[in-house]
Amino acid sequence: MNEVILALHKRLDNMKANLPSEAASVEQINKYFLEQQEITEQMLKILEAQEDATTSEILGCKESIKNFREAMKQADSKMEQMSLKDVYYNLGKALCAAWNKDQETLGKLKCCPNIRAEKWNNPKDFSWEAGKGFVPSKAVLGEPIGNLANNDQYLINPIYEETIMEEAAKQSMMMNLVTHRPMSGPSIFIPQRDRGGIELKWLTSYGQKIDATKSNMPTRTELKCYTLAGYVPYFDEFGEDAFADLGKMFLEDFTEAYGQEFDKQCLTANAAPFTGAMNVTGAEVHTASSAAIENLSYLDFRAAELKVEPEERKYCKWFMNETVLNHITNIKDDNNNPIWRKPWEGMPSRLDGYDVIESRLLPQFSEIEEDTVFAIFMNPKRIIHGNRKGIEIKRFDETTESLEYGELFMRFRKRDGFLVTRPAKNMVLLKTAEE
């Protein structure tokens, strides 16, 4: 049989074996089936491009795709929505199984071993079969799969990953504001183009020569993805009576730490591997009229805003520490009107007409000295977050704390990338003057 056709059959079998029967939200259900629909559309395009496959092979594969779509319809009609408590319980059960290397439980929970060093596995790479254990779906490619018996790191079920990220977004000020890009590899190139990508010419008479025009070619900027690791400590042994509590504790610890780190990489990071908006090269800088933060004027904000072109300005927001905003509430313009309008005044809570996002990562009012950046005016969509799917969990007990205090750790890893794009004329850093 044609190798491509064979690979498609294997992938379809694996997708069918991993059809979920439950999800944590309606949004997850819709997102999953949309992704599967896109995958099958890509498969059909691959089939149409096969020139050395027989007609019967192509028709057989199309029939398999049709059968899978029918299975999706049936699964969609029977899909059950889990409560958050169910997610806690199953996540805790998966953590316990990973700690005890209970592959059967992990398989039933649709987690999978992660045995590659650089390119992680995907839960769709494996299916769990009773009596056989984890069966790799990509063995036909001749790729070494590793020693499953000794593996001790696992990727959690994507359903739980989606729930974890939804909860993390509640802990982050930036996660719902930036642009998210899925990444299937360690890096992607993002085209960056200034506004007005095409040059236009008017013809004022019949037969006039049409001068050659040149489009504003985009700049290719690389977005790299790196692995973020952390450790969640436990003092007690993992037990069946505490699955829900264990899952809840892991989710809360992970989402709080990850949400704070996400905001840091977007706003204030100034070391490898990423640079946040406050330290990015090329951003516009506006210096306030005074070196003392106490002497801020509404004109300082107005002048900073005008450094961004109008087309971009309408999407911008102010980012600052809540203590700085607290001071700004007392600043008035020349008409004696406060530049920050209060929500209880029946108007949007805005600074000079723009939304304000408070972040404790930015400088506090009492810490701002001369020549110090303390606020950012930007469109947060210009920050790109590269999201590589997969959260890995691993038992980690080879520590001094484990020997001395009996403290145990569950290590987690996730892969992300951050890139601030097009800062010139689109982003302004507001700072105090030099004395």
Notes on the structure:
The protein has 435 residues and is of the alpha+beta class. Helix content is 34%, strand content 23%. The protein has helices at residues 3-17, 26-48, 55-78, 84-100, 103-108, 158-171, 243-267, 298-305, 310-313, 322-328, 400-405, and strands at residues 22-23, 80-81, 112-113, 126-129, 133-136, 153-155, 179-182, 187-192, 219-224, 226-234, 270-271, 274-275, 284-287, 317-320, 340-341, 350-351, 354-358, 373-378, 383-396, 408-420, 427-431. Strands 13-21-18-14-17-16-15 form a seven-stranded mixed beta sheet. Strands 3, 6, 7, 10, 19 and 20 form a six-stranded mixed beta sheet that branches. A hairpin with an 8-residue loop joins strand 15 and strand 16 (350-351). Helix 4 (84-100) packs across helix 7 and helix 6 crosses helix 7 (243-267). The protein is globular and about 75 Å long. The model has no long low-confidence stretch (mean pLDDT 81).
Strand content: 15-25%
Strands across the major sheet, in which order?
13-21-18-14-17-16-15
Using the alpha-carbon principal axes, give the shape. globular
User: Span between N and C termini?
Assistant: 78 Å
Rounded to the nearest angstrom, the radius of gyration is: 27 Å
Mean pLDDT comes to 81
**Structural class determined from secondary elements:** alpha+beta
How would a textbook summarize the main sheet? 7 strands, mixed
- Number of DSSP E strands: 21
Q: Any low-confidence stretches, pLDDT <50, length ≥5?
A: none
Number of DSSP helices? 11
